[in-house]
Write a structure and sequence with these properties.
Strand content of chain A: 15-25%
Largest sheet of chain A: 6 strands, parallel
Structural class of chain A: alpha/beta
Radius of gyration of chain B: 23 Å
Largest interface: A-B, 88 and 108 residues
Helix content of chain B: 40-55%
Largest sheet of chain B: 6 strands, parallel
Radius of gyration of chain A: 21 Å
Number of helices of chain A: 7
Order of helices and strands of chain A: EHHEHEHHEHEEEEEHEEEE
Distance between the termini of chain B: 33 Å
Strand order of the largest sheet of chain A: 2-13-8-5-3-4
Strand content of chain B: 5-15%
Shape of chain B: globular
Oligomer: heterodimer
Number of strands of chain A: 13
Chain lengths: 236, 475
Amino acid sequence: MTIQNRDAFLENVASHLGRNRRTEGVERPKWSIQPQFDVFKDHSKDEMVDELEAICDVIHTDMKRTTKQNLHKTLHETFTDLNGKTVIASSDNRNVEFGLDTFYKNFESSGGHVHLWNEDMEEENGLVAERADIGIVFSDITLAESGTTVLFNNKYNGRAISLLPHSYVALIPKSTIVPRMTQATKMIHERNLAGDDVASCVSFVTGPSNSADIEMKLIVGVHGPVTATYILIEDA
Amino acid sequence: MSIKIGNEKYDERVEEGLDNDFMRQAVSSAQGRFRSGKQKQADELGNWEDWRTLGSEIRTHTLENLDYYLQILSDNVEKRGGKVFFAQTAEEANEYIQNVVKEKEAKKVVKAKSMVTEEIGLNDALADIGSEVVETDLGEWILQLDEDPPSHIVTPALHKNKEQIQETFHNKRGYEGSDTPEDLGLFAREQLRKDFLSADVGITGCNFAVAESGAITFVTNEGNARLATSLPDTQISVMGMERLVPTWEELDVLVSLLTRAAVGQKLTSYVTSITGTRLAGETDGPEEYHLVIVDNGRSKILGTEFQSALHCIRCAACINVCPVYRHVGGHAYGSIYPGPIGAVLTPLLDGYEDHKELPYASSLCGACTEACPVKIPLHEQLIRHREIIADEEKDTPIPEKALMKGFAKWASTPTAYKMSAAMARTAMKPWSKDEKIENGPGPMKGWTNSRNFPAPSETSFRSWFKHRKKEEEVK
């Protein structure tokens, strides 16, 4: 049985609420106030990029701005700065659009190693992610207010890429920027209503992992990546 | 462990807290840090009150329709390949989880920090069947190595200093490094990474479930909940039955309130929503998924005047402003839920018998109510608890009963409600003697004649408590 004890449990809840059990017909009320939509309401994309850059300082994240044309150069610098020899990347369909396929080829011929996430290579995906210096993915939605990259993890973008390697690198096409979490969750909500299944894992990733559990002193890099780099790409 | 921590008497726990200088200093400075972080976020938004109003509306609607949303949630988890178990009691929840772990022949279980699993005593239940449980939140791991209970909801090892942690790591794991937080953290990362990679089962709590799609959301900074839900083949999420929202749109609001109110962050490093089992072609995420929905006394709170206590989103903002918590620390409450919300919830979940002192662990200054991001009237609920306790205890001096009724009535008026802690302190100044109110005005007079009423102060807790204790002994 996949759902156990439900009826007795929910009958009990309803009886404590002093009414019969509700199984249908409940509508979300119209909330009296919705302040979340006011944040950066009139910001242009460029203004949101500035907000993103400002918050990156707070979240211990290195942000670089580049263009599609200069992306190879920026990536090369980034990989060198991070001392990245082994890289694991999502097999995103944007890899070709942004010329990453040729970049990875060049990187390999100069001695680096790139593993593209592969649904047929379960063991290798995990092994490489665990020892990789860099995990690199595209941000699906980017939140200017909090400096968050939203990832819809799937068979092309495994959860481990942005989690196990030492450094997290997020490619952020400027077109993915929205004011805050509100716009991302609204989109997920609307897609769900339209019958599209939500990804098995939606990751809101904001900078590197950290902890303040020892004497309230910030430690950057606990279980997840120790460093984070955002590469903002002008794509419009 | 269960909701109740230890068997020492309340007085002894308080004395211990007062005698622990490091802990008191750490608590005080942590409170300051958390408070100013939260204040900064509230100021930046500029309309924090609107956010609180919305948060309160969402929680109220969800709790009033809890049976409906839990049904939708469980249907959606099932659709995505997950199994759902509704547990009326802690025992039922533990037994179900034990069975899953046994069936998987799991030797190692990794856990991400979760208050509800502390509440039901899950670690002990798993130890009983011989499985190794590793707490993976840095603070929780330190406490687990040291066999110590948590003292704060957000930073559980707040009462320990780095030298103590270094010693624990050395004694239990042969650590030879320095006592800097960085080195200690790095050591924990290396040790725990091995556990993550070799674990058979991952167990997490749940910050918010999203009914409309069956997603379970975890809010962390360390990333341990991500690891616990990505690597082991079997995943079990345990949620208190009230921890859900109707749709993703409300998830946004409550997560935003939680991270701001808890740690003063716009968002934590990781907000992770997982739904059911991994999909075709995915090579990480659980192959088997279980959601355990726990009542354990919560339904008894529904339909009562305390229902809004279930609106709590476990941010600890009330703890971070509480002058009593500042002085006695988390362990004095004798509950895994400390501070004002702990003083309200613990007697509701676990009965008055063992916890009847808790509603008195408050100066009723109202700072908790002001701080709560979902507007739970915490200090009013504390007054109601006192009234109930006073009514039940036959040997309570009559004036106290009368006072509590009068005081509750007075405190529930809009004027009193608006009084901040500072204002209350000023207003009471004329009657304060050594920070204790000895000749209170109006309704307080009867009470202060038989026992001293604590002024909303932060300087003389120790003397007030000593005084109060003496009176208790005389009685």
